[in-house]
Specification:
13% strand; Ubiquitin-like (UB roll); 5 strands; 205 residues; BAG family molecular chaperone regulator 1; alpha+beta; Methane Monooxygenase Hydroxylase, Chain G, domain 1; BAG_dom_sf; 57% helix
């Protein structure tokens, strides 16, 4: 009788296609078949990365790679449903662009924080009166550039194309878009205050 801890036959249902496979370990192996071995086999057969797989047996998702198959009821002849698909190179490319944009947004947010910090210093009187107007004009220029960069980043995000099924990519893009909108509101508020302060300084001179 076959030791089902070391060798079993499984029926894999992936989409509309069924496959029969054997999972087995070397005869001299001290291991027993685990969910991890099944996951690795799915990578080998279907080129679906581990993070993209969902393996289901009798309505239950097999999540723990360390679970022993025989102990969770996966026995010889069992039917396994595999969900997930091979990564689309184009979507991988779009995701890389998305992550690059996210990093650029973080850098631009740092520039906005620097402008805010320097403006606060002017408000606290950390700069001579005769230097205020040039400093404020310089901050206005930098703030305008920061705001323009955020707008370009929104355009870049809008140009990305994710399939309806790619909820991860679409959700992450929305999160970044929402973040940029908040930062643009900050830019608008700062710009309004800067213009008022510049006008007051010009009246003094």
């Amino acid at each position: 009788m076959t030791d089902q801890r070391h060798r079993i036959k499984l029926n894999i249902k992936h989409g509309s296609v069924r496959h029969s496979i054997f999972l087995e370990l070397p005869a001299n192996s001290s291991e027993v078949l685990k969910v991890q071995h099944l996951m690795d086999k799915m990578v080998e057969m279907f080129e679906i990365p581990l993070e993209c797989q969902k393996i289901v047996h009798k309505g239950k998702t097999l999540k723990d790679p360390g679970d022993i198959l025989s102990e969770i009821g996966v026995r010889d002849g069992a039917t396994i449903m595999l969900l997930g698909k091979k990564p689309d190179p184009q979507e991988d490319k779009e995701m890389k662009k998305l992550l690059d944009i996210e990093k650029d947004v973080e850098k631009n947010e740092k520039r906005l924080s620097d402008v805010t910090y320097e403006l606060d210093g002017i408000h606290r009187g950390y700069i001579n009166d005769d230097l205020k107007l040039p400093a404020l004009n310089q901050l206005k220029k930098r703030l305008g550039g920061t705001s323009e960069t955020f707008m370009k980043q929104l355009e870049s995000l809008d140009a990305l194309r994710f399939e309806e099924s790619n909820k991860g990519g679409r959700g992450k893009r929305k999160t970044i878009v929402d973040r940029i909108q908040v930062l643009l509101d900050r830019c608008d508020g700062l710009m309004s205050g800067l213009k008022d302060q510049i006008a007051r300084e010009q009246e003094k001179s």
